[in-house]
Amino acid sequence: LLLNMEFIPREQEINEIRRQKWLSVHQRSRMLLIYGRRLTGKKSAVLEALKGAPVLLFHISGKAWPLQMKEFAGVVKSQLNQELPEGVQTLSSLFEFLLSSVGKDLSVVIDGFDELQKLDIGEYAAFARVWNAYRTHTHVNVVLCMNSHSMPDDLFLWESSPMRNCLDSYFRMNPLTVRQFKDTVLSYYKDAGPLD
């Protein structure tokens, strides 16, 4: 969460994001899911935790897939100075390209991962196949952000889930409590009263 463009710390969540990043560099690739209501600070917490490290941020917005891939190609070009090969036309093929061609110390953040369901539900299974093929011998930190009130069990936890056994860690990002808001306001405005 930002107030006057300063990050309001969420120590527990940031520590978990940093822990997964460390494990991805020193052990093997890791996949972390952060879910919660919209506007709870998921992406801000991720970017704060990974500040100073190379990050590729992809946002799935529900646009037509060719337009979405054009945006993703722009992210890869600007951040990695690489062109996407012609055959990279889906999220899973982009993911495979990144896992197979990028070295250590890269974080791939996919914001709006739940929006993929509206575009192509089969893409989740393809994404999982790529992940399972590369996860043990690569060192990429993958963070998935989803706007969901509850854990998307049908995607990750059920026996028939397309991404079963893909996650290394997950947590729910809850909205700030009234106490957290109050403490934040008081830290910026010492003279604030009860109605502030």
Q: Would you tell me the overall average pLDDT? A: 87
Please state how the strands of the largest beta sheet are arranged side by side: 4-5-6-3-7
Outline type: globular
What is the SS-derived class?
A: alpha/beta
Order of helices and strands: EEHEHEHHEHHEHEH
Q: Give me the count of strands.
A: 7
How much of the sequence lies in strands comes to: 15-25%
Distance between the termini: 18 Å
**What's the helical proportion of residues?**
40-55%
Write down the Rg: 18 Å
| Unreliable residue runs | 1-5
Number of helices: 8
The largest pleated sheet is described as: 5 strands, parallel
Detailed description of the structure:
42% of the residues lie in helices and 17% in strands. The chain is α/β, with parallel strands linked by helices and 196 residues long. The strands form 2 sheets. A 5-stranded parallel β-sheet has the order 4-5-6-3-7. It has a two-stranded antiparallel ribbon with strand order 1-2. A hairpin with a 2-residue loop joins strand 1 and strand 2. Helix 1 (11-26) packs across helix 2 and helix 4 runs parallel beside helix 6. The radius of gyration is 18 Å and the shape is globular.
Features of this protein?
196 residues; alpha/beta; 8 helices; 7 strands; disordered N terminus
List the helices and strands and how they pair.
Elements: E1 2-3, E2 6-7, H1 11-26, E3 30-36, H2 42-49, E4 55-59, H3 65-80, H4 91-101, E5 106-111, H5 116-119, H6 122-134, E6 140-147, H7 153-156, E7 169-172, H8 178-188
Parallel strand pairs: 3-6, 3-7, 4-5, 5-6
Antiparallel strand pairs: 1-2
Helix pairs in contact: 1-2, 4-6
